[in-house]
Amino acid sequence: MAEPNLDQMEKIRDVVAQDLLGGRIELLLGWEKGHYWWQSRPLFAHSKEDLEKLVWDSFCAVNLSRYLLDELKDHQKVGVLVKGCDARAFNRLLQDNMVERDRVVLYGLPCPGMLDYDRLAAAAESAPDGITEQNGRVILKTARGEVEIERDAVLMDKCKDCLYPDPVVYDQLLLEPQGEREAPERFKAVGDLENLPDNERFAYWEKELSRCLRCYACRQACPYCSCRECFVEQENPRWQGRAYQPSENFLFHLVRAYHGAGRCIDCGECERACPVGIPLQELNRKLTKDINELYGHYEAGLDAELEPPLLTYRPDDPAAFSEK
Amino acid sequence: MLKKVITRDKLPALWAHLSEQGPLILPVQDGPVVLFKPWQEGTAVNLDAVNSAVSPKDIFLPREETFLHYRSGNQQLELKAVAEEEPVIAFGLHPCDLKAIEMLDRVFMEQDPPDALYRNRRERTTVVALACSEPDPFCFCNDFGIDPTAAPGADILGHLTDSSLLLEALTDKGKALLEQAGELLEDGSGEQVEKQEIKTADFGLKLEGLPADLKNRFDDPVWDEIYKSCLSCGVCTYVCPTCYCFDVEDFGHAAEGERFRCWDSCMYGHFTVMAGGHNPRPDRKERVRQRFMHKLQYYPEVYDEIACVGCGRCLRSCPVNLDIVQAIKALGGEKVEQR
User: Fold this and answer.
1) Number of domains present in the structure of chain B
2) Lowest mean pLDDT among B32-41, B179-188, B281-290
């Protein structure tokens, strides 16, 4: 079992219950436990009974902001629990004119980073039976006794290089801020790939993308993929074929990544959703790195007023492609 | 029947030998996941993983399968059927996946006419199953009455220990394969396998009567709740061993190309779009209902068995944990504690 922090839980529940039962919001998007202690899944709470299932623990990885695209069709006002990355995802949707700010109440949850089950199981050397956390350390209950490890060592990939664990936009901050983090390794994998000769880099991506099932989980989980009709499904002209050819795999992933240039908020939901472990963050971060180098440092989703570089025009914009 | 044994250190030699006649498809560590792939020199075989990330249905129903080459010009259309003929060895399938193949067999082979592409692959494949020794936390095959240490339907059943692999022929086809391996395999007639009881996850499911109960619940309001978290991706359908929907498409251009069939998913918005644009399953609710009704009502209505084998892949891979257990519980397929 995973033990949630009861003080935090009570505080969160009190605030959202007041708003939901008092009629300020019609729906609360939160998390509830799945079948396992290491899974927390989306909760769509309408009532007091629903709120009893609400949890906030180290497994609330699912980004809830994306559900606003559907839920705002059926509800006038929706409340959402947002971690740092979820808040930036909300800004992404706001900048893309997919949501209206005044129809959403954001409850900010400063996030310590979510834990990865496979890493926990590897650390425990078997399937752990339960977990407790204390002062930045994780204690796993296993058949062979307790295993203690540092929390940072078992974070999800998407959380390892997080720069903004605290929500950057909210109506109410429910917990104490975590403070800024550093992520010195954020562009390391991209840099390593850039240093490879072209043919080796191509071979690397051909191999990684060969696993792609074209299940589109990366796209469906992504806050920058909010097009009402994706190019993948367009019939006329037909851009994306169904064959599992390298050319088709490259087409999908590269077009998607380019579509996210300067818009990707680096939440890592694409990579978390991928059932075959394709390192999609490396593609997204390559584009982020290029944007930073070409147009100056830009963090997507930090400030909804600050337009992404490729969506604006300035006469002094560099023209790196034509200058070569 | 014939029993042979081989120590683990000699397995690479066995792989090399078995792949001489045709593809040897087995669980391979590919990046962070295990997938069924053809063996090649240097392949990182992983027989110890319980379940591959994607089910081995791919061996019989490939995610893409070319069956026709076409060429046109000078007002002539040239068509050439493509059919592979070499024998295939599918190695290391677990009992739940075999049970799923039995379910696919009914759909593709026990029909008139049978599906020629599927039958072709099925008939030229020798299946070597691998008994489970320890379930992973996602396994729940006990709920479907599957014995994780037996493999009806396989040609050979393998038992893996820390040091060796015991192979027992179950059919003549399996016996022939063991004999063909010659001296690579040692006599295993004296080897005994201790019958092991394997307990998989217990979610307290009550499956009896569920298909009949669902027959008149197409319009049940519970469907308005179940689908809510679905992201409309195709993960569940593509990792699932009993999902078998496909599409047929062309790769190439008007003058020359190939026609193939490939996996399709009822979770996709375009799955049921008709010519003219009408879509009878316009939204996530209808699609999620379709998938779970297919598993729990439509398939059992025809074949008398729920189309799930408890492999746990959707429990592991659904990005929002909207898996089949979630659906079964929401639909009332849960044991209620008796006081």
Assistant:
1) 2
2) B179-188
Same domain, B174 and B214: no
B150 and B221 belong to one structural domain: no
User: Where in the sequence is the domain holding B293, given as residue range(s)?
Assistant: 210-246+264-330
Residue B339's pLDDT band, with cuts at 50, 70 and 90, is very low
Find the CB nearest A217 among B30, B235, B326: B235
Return the domain boundaries, chain A. 6-116+155-173, 117-152, 188-323
The residue of chain A nearest to residue B249, with distances taken between CA atoms, is A242
Question: How many beta-carbon pairs under 8 angstroms link A with B?
Answer: 107
Residue B306 pLDDT exceeds 50: yes
Interface test with B, best of A119, A158, A276 (most B CBs within 10 A): A276
Note whether B121 and B38 are same-domain residues. yes
Would residue B168 count as lying in a domain?
A: yes
Does B224 reside within a domain?
yes
- Say yes or no for a CB contact (<8 Å) between A275 and B235: yes
**Residue A129 contacts B where some CB pair is shorter than 8 Å:** no
DSSP B70-107: EEEETTEEEEEE----S-EEEEEE-HHHHHHHHHHHHH
Question: Could you tell me if A214 and A242 are in contact, meaning their C-beta atoms sit under 8 angstroms apart?
Answer: yes
Helix count and strand count (H, E) for chain A: 13, 8
**What's the pLDDT tens digit per position in A246-273?**
899 999 999 999 999 999 999 999 999 9
Q: What is the mean pLDDT of residues B107-120?
A: 95
Q: Do B234 and A216 lie within an 8 Å CB cutoff?
A: yes
pLDDT attached to residue B21 = 87
* Residue B157 token pair: 């059943």
What would the two tokens of residue A134 be? 């204390």
Residues B21 and B99 in one domain: yes
pTM score, whole prediction = 0.95
| Helix, strand, or coil (residue A205) | helix
- Which residue in B30, B63, B323 is closest to A244 by CB distance? B63
Q: Please check whether residue B28 is in contact with residue B45, taking contact to mean a CB–CB distance below 8 angstroms.
A: yes
**Chain B interface, mutation test: which of A35, A47, A214, most B Cβ atoms within 10 Å?**
A35
Q: Residue A211 and residue B249: Cβ atoms within 8 Å?
A: no
